[in-house]
Amino acid sequence: MIITIEDYISWRKSTKCIMLKYIAGDTAVLSISKNGVDAHAMYINSVLTEYTIDPGYWFTLETLGYKTEIEENINAGSITIAPEDWRPTPFRS
Q1: Buried b (16+ CB within 10 A) or exposed e, 8-17
Q2: Which of 13, 21, 89, 90 is surrounded by the most beta carbons within 10 Å?
Q3: What is the pLDDT of residues 37-77, one digit of tens each?
Q4: CATH superfamily name and code, 2-79
Q5: Contact between 20 and 72 (Cβ < 8 Å)
Q6: Cα angle vertex 29, ends 26, 30, to 5°?
Q7: How far apart are the C-alpha atoms of 15 and 13, rounded to whole Å?
Q8: Which residues, in sequence order, are CB contacts of 72 under 8 Å at separation 6+?
Q9: What's the pLDDT tens digit per position in 16-33?
Q10: d(CA 40, CA 88)
Q11: How many alpha carbons fall within 13 Å on the CB side of residue 65?
Q12: Burial of 69 by CB count in 10 Å (0-12 exposed, 13-18 middle, 19+ buried)?
């Protein structure tokens, strides 16, 4: 799969484990949220080449450059895709 600025993986979650493997291109940023409230991000590139996302975790993947090539199984299991304007939001205190 080729990830570009226009063609990225939007926020979603799966009932199955998701595997991502960096193949080539620019660094990508993977954001993950266990509960839809808190999120953390990491770079996927030639240093961190593989990452596994647990079932039920929200995630999104975007390139930080022109394009990133990854191997993935993002359609495994039952997929829930978040509305386009959704993102994890911390509780207000």
Answers
A1: ebebbbbebe
A2: 13
A3: 999 999 999 988 899 999 999 999 999 999 999 999 988 88
A4: Jelly Rolls (2.60.120.10)
A5: yes
A6: 135
A7: 7
A8: 1, 9, 18, 19, 20, 21
A9: 999 999 999 999 999 999
A10: 10
A11: 12
A12: middle
| CB-based contact 28:43 (threshold 8 Å) | yes
What backbone torsions phi and psi does residue 20 show, to the nearest 5 degrees? -120, 135
Residue with tokens 């930080």: 64
Residues written for the chain: 93
Q: What is the band of 90 on the pLDDT scale with cuts at 50, 70, 90?
A: confident
Q: Among residues 93, 76, 88, 1, which one has the least CA distance to residue 41?
A: 88
The pLDDT of residue 93 is above 80: no
